[in-house]
Amino acid sequence: MIRQSRRPGFTLIETVITLGLLASLLVLVVNRLPTHQRQFNTERAFWDKFQTVWQERVYLASAYGELQQVSFNEHDIVFKSKTSTGPPTVTVTLPTTLKKTPAQTRIVHIQKNGHPTLAGILYRSTLQPRILYKLSVEMGWGAYEIREVRV
Description:
This protein has 151 residues and is of the alpha+beta class. It contains one helix and eight strands. A hairpin with an 8-residue loop joins strand 2 (76-81) and strand 3 (90-93).
């Protein structure tokens, strides 16, 4: 009669189950990374578009003497001219990962000389929950600053 020796180690079925679980986790992580990077790119594109439209409105206010209004809403930022002859309204939509805090509408006016009214608006990103983005509209010709504030 052949004696079976009890050697420590994994059986074939235990090894297959472990490798299957690890492969499933790896597939989930690999599929998540491009989405995460795409969301970062979407946020970056939002801030770039905001900067472009802001600079355009500051120029229009100072060059043509048209008062501009910027409404910071919960889901978007709306730029519009206060005169009927001004350029059309431009809306910059917030990405789904960016939320304005608190949820009230804040209105900033860009005066005819290009100087905006003072304001401070906070945004929270779901991609980096411990960081608030503080958009500070400052005195000066179209001056604003975006700072990251750790919470």
